Each structure stands twice: as structure tokens, then as C-alpha cells.
Amino acid sequence: MKINKKNKTCRKKEKSDIGAAILFLAPNFIGFMIFTLIPMVFSLVMSLTGTHTFVGLKNFITLFTKDILFFKVMKNTFVYVIAYVGLNVIIALGMAVWITSLKKANQFFRSVFFLPMMVGIVSSTMIFKWILSDTGIVNTVLRFFGAEGFNWFGSTKTAMIAVVIVSIWQGFGYNMVIFISGLLSVPKS
Q: How far is residue 92's CA from residue 173's CA, in Å, rounded to a whole number?
């Protein structure tokens, strides 16, 4: 008899736990549905239709076989991604080697260089929009030395470079910490 009473108590507790779990998960699930799943399904449906008619994979076939601009953009994007990854790793490894060689203040520099990782992408973008604007610090310094300033975010030649710079500034701290932990685990011998 005692076993049955315990089972009933456990079942009641499980039901109340399920209700609490649903209550806590509901906002995340609703947000996922509204901002991720529904837009993905809508994008898929739009990609399979033409002007109000279903065309199937015709749009994708045209994109991959006849659209020259698509391949040009993909080639340029690939170059910028390789540049981002390569520079990120080189800078992170260089900073990690330098910081591990320091006797004093290595904790300070580790924290300072990891700090951009803690800043949100919107904040990073606003900071660099201010730094790279027409009257920003970079263009002011360039004009001081007699060079002409750049329209960093408004030109097709420099916009992706600016995005890569912002991304490296924000992301290399994480890789640096990983490299530091790897360097510190290597025996001195």
C-alpha cells in the first residue's frame, strides 16, 4: 500500500513540475517561433515562388547557373571570411604568447583584451560607427597627417574591411584566452 501512495505523490509532483517547466519554457518557445521558425518557413516559401506562382527550384537553378553577380559576391565574401579567420587567429595567438611571457600585469591585459567579447555586437557597432565616421577619430588622425579620410561604412571598397575590423576587435579575445590556456598547459621542460 505504501508504494502506491508514493507513486501517486510522485505523479502529482511530476505533473506540477511539467506545468512549471511549460510556464518557464513558453516565453522562449514563443520567441523562437516568432523570430526564428516562422521567418525561416516564410523565406523557404518565398524562395520557391515567383510572382505569386509556385516555381519550385527554378529560382535556385537560375541563381547557381546564370547569376554572375552571385558568384562575384560569394568570391568576395569568401576572401573576407578567410581574412577574418586568419587575422583573428594570428592576432589572438600573438597576444597570447605576449601575455604569457609577462611576469606582471598578465591578468590585467588578459581582462582588457577579453572585455570586447563581453560587449554586445550592437554596442561594438555603435562604438566603431563613432570611431570610423567622417568626423571620427580615424579620419581626424588621417587628415592631421595630410591624408584624405575614408567613408568607411558608405563605400563598397571599405565597408567589408570595417566589418572585419569590428569583428576581429570583438572576437579575438575569446581565441586569445583559449590559446593562453593551451600555452600555460605546456610543460616548461
A: 7
